[in-house]
Amino acid sequence: MEKHLSGARRRAEKELEGQKTADALRVRHEIELESFYLKVEEKRIANQSYQPLLDQWDEYYLAMKLRQACSAKTYEAVFNTSYDYGLLDVLFDRVDWERYMPLPAISLYYHGYWMLVRPEEEAHFASFKRSLLQHGESFPLEERKDFFMLAANYCTRKYNEGRKDYARELNEIFKAGLAAGALQMQFSRFTFRNIVIIALVVGDFEWAEQFMEDYQAYLPHRHRESTVSSSRARLEYQRQNYGRALELLQKVEYRDLVLNLSAKGLLIKIYYETGEYDLLDAHLAAMHTFIRRQKNPSYQVSNFRQLVHFAQRLLELNPYDPGAKARLRVEVATATSVAEKEWLLRMLGEDQGYSDF
């Protein structure tokens, strides 16, 4: 039934138009394999080469191997474990990767893998970002989301290392991911908060405000009010509308520990900058007690414990000791894992211009 087979093949190829995923590579191989078997059956294989089938299977295998390697590297970081990657090292040594870079299903995962393994080689991020913005819409939504989150996590890591230029890169990735419909899937309060924070860091205040208005409906209902109010409070703080920021912070109870600590950290900044030193002193004492009562404290709790410690030192600085501020500034600058570190340095006269999150 060659006529019917030819028609089915044309319909299948039409369905595959524009699809650039690893699964699409596999299906193209299966279509070609069916056609090859037909010609074998009809003894029309004199000029039929098996080479395209070998090449197509290589493309699919490499795409899937790299995709799984990226997933495994992500899980290694989350669960503090390690995996055996089988033939991956051999493939990196033996494969002519430039030959496969025109295939987005390979190039995206190839550069994505090296972004995870060798983040210092920034050319991989540039190539990944270029391919993602050009070909991202050719991938299913779930896979597209993974790409954008991989790019966002890379930018966040570089930014938290002090690379201020990655703030704008991250803001661009967030905007592109939202426009592509990729970040709304399972929209967490942490993603929402980070999108707002980075927009505020780069001074994109109006966009941040519009984002909160447009996308708050994607948040889980139980977290919506607290997440939006804390994000709006940050915006009002940046605009130096301290009274409005305080109103928003006191509007709801923050049941989530990270949001709670973040709100308390923002209160430290507002009290200090408005000269409410008595309120700040009482707030720091209460926050110290709150942190001490936490069972199994996470790294976020440790970061805020450091903030409380240095904020108390800042509050108690001796104005008649000219070297006290300089000594404290050195301590803050050399300390690791301090929440609101850039704010502390700015209050001590050294503006770093970036924020950990």
Explain what this protein looks like in three dimensions:
- This protein is mainly alpha-helical and 357 residues long.
- The longest helix is centred in the N-terminal third of the chain and has 29 residues, at 51-79.
- The protein has helices at 2-16, 22-41, 51-79, 88-94, 104-117, 123-135, 141-160, 166-179, 189-201, 205-215, 221-238, 242-249, 257-273, 277-292, 299-315, 324-334, 341-347.
- The mean pLDDT is 89.
- It has a domain at 270-357.
- The chain has 17 helices and no strands.
Short description:
This protein is an all-alpha fold.
The radius of gyration computed from the alpha-carbon positions, rounded to a whole number of angstroms, is 26 Å
For the largest beta-sheet, the strand count, sense and barrel status come to: none
N-to-C series of helices and strands: HHHHHHHHHHHHHHHHH
Q: So what's the overall shape?
A: elongated
In terms of DSSP E residues, the strand content is under 5%
Low-confidence stretches: none
Mean residue pLDDT: 89
Features of the shown structure:
single chain; mainly alpha; 17 helices; 357 residues; elongated; 0% strand
List the helices and strands and how they pair.
Layout: H1 2-16, H2 22-41, H3 51-79, H4 88-94, H5 104-117, H6 123-135, H7 141-160, H8 166-179, H9 189-201, H10 205-215, H11 221-238, H12 242-249, H13 257-273, H14 277-292, H15 299-315, H16 324-334, H17 341-347
